[in-house]
Amino acid sequence: MCGIWALFGSDECLSVHVTSAMRIAHRGPDAFRFENVNGFTNCCFGFHRLAVVDQLHGMQPLRINKFPFLWLCYNGEIYNHLALNKKFGFKPQMAVDGEVLLHLYDRFGIKKMAALLDGVFAFILLDTEKKKVFVGRDTYGVKPLFKLSTDDGFLALCSEAKGLTEITHAMTSPASIEQVLPGHFEEFDLKQNGKVSSVQMEEFHCCTDGPEHAVCDSLGTLPSGFDEDTVKSNIRTLFENAVKKRLMAQRRIGCLLSGGLDSSLVAATLMKLAKEETLPYKIQTFSIGSEDSPDILAARKVAAYIGSEHHEVNFSAEEGIRAVEEVIFHLETYDITTVRASVGMFLVAKYIREKSDSVVIFSGEGADELTQGYIYFHKAPSPRASAEESIRLMKELYLFDVLRADRTTAAHG
């Protein structure tokens, strides 16, 4: 979890915008950098780091000797960076997973670069040689990115809208803050004075299409066929691989555990793979609820069965109500269902930060949307209608469950 921020074409002294960049400091407690872009006036980057991969290096904006004209700020993890380096013969300068974006962009351009990434990410890429700015976001919008642009060439970008609101207040012309769409990239031309103009916005991947990064997938081709044994085997293989590739973190890993099917499967698989990978610590699981609530009891049973180091967080209705205002501040939404569901996650994330050393947290978000787990799916008029509803929910995850997972954890670094 990191916080990225950038500004292009401001007519004010850039130092006055540092306060705006600091409004997302909670996203990266390990380090902060604010840097002007050489040779271009009124352009700068801000970065708040939570070190997950390559703790020694990896400060941003990321720049390497081979491409001195490229500046990169990104938030997320690129699970296939080692496979990409091997397939295309890249020679990385650091162990940072995001460096592969620079090599891919130089070799293939922005669209194929984004399409080849298997991971969760939001990026701001500056090419001072071609005078271009590119922004993009992963297929499901797991990592957030907001933009503020005006007709006169001003562009500001931030992981959270709160890092842009103070900028809009100082503007004399109307301006709106928008999300960068998941699965899309946008290209801007950059002038010497820092002003930009949008060239194109294009989708590089949709959840209904096969991913281009599958060409470097270590799984190879799965067995074909729709008999029950083959289908079950393929689901298990894909699920285990999804968990395994997320073990690349160099910080301690934990898992949220409600005792329901989704989080229990993730936690059990995580425990199995952690033993196989011989991680030097025991996986911590975390549950939250009122004392002896159904979720707490179910999670307790699962944790005992899989052998995790289990933590229970109890909270009262009064504690939940007191947290609502802060939850809304971090969520940046008044959606009732999202706010209600976020209170517990916000409080357990606070506990994890204060009472444990787990930094990378697994959870079961997205399972109900993908596998049609919500009760109302039972009333679908046809399999086609059910599939169409599932796709709609997957495309809107970034507005609800993914939003909750990102903001409640980022609130506590």
Automatic annotation (TrEMBL):
Pathway as given in its UniProt record: Amino-acid biosynthesis; L-asparagine biosynthesis; L-asparagine from L-aspartate (L-Gln route): step 1/1
Q: Which UniProt keywords apply?
A: Amino-acid biosynthesis, Asparagine biosynthesis, ATP-binding, Glutamine amidotransferase, Ligase, Nucleotide-binding
Q: Which reaction does it catalyse?
A: L-aspartate + L-glutamine + ATP + H2O = L-asparagine + L-glutamate + AMP + diphosphate + H(+)
**UniProt-listed Pfam families:** Asn_synthase, GATase_7
What is this enzyme's class at the first EC digit? ligase
What EC number(s) is this enzyme filed under? Answer: 6.3.5.4
PROSITE patterns reported for this sequence: GATASE_TYPE_2
Name a biological process GO annotation. asparagine biosynthetic process
Q: Which GO terms describe its molecular function?
A: asparagine synthase (glutamine-hydrolyzing) activity; ATP binding
Which stretches make up the Glutamine amidotransferase type-2 domain? 2-191
InterPro entries listed in its UniProt record = Asn_synth_AEB (IPR006426), Asn_synthase (IPR001962), Asn_Synthetase (IPR050795), AsnB_N (IPR033738), GATase_2_dom (IPR017932), Ntn_hydrolases_N (IPR029055), Rossmann-like_a/b/a_fold (IPR014729)
What GO cellular component term, any one, is given?
Answer: cytosol
Q: Does the keyword NADP apply?
A: no
Protein's name in the database = Asparagine synthetase [glutamine-hydrolyzing]
Origin species, per record, is Pogonophryne albipinna
Instruction: Tell me the classification of the organism that encodes this protein.
Output: Eukaryota, Metazoa, Chordata, Craniata, Vertebrata
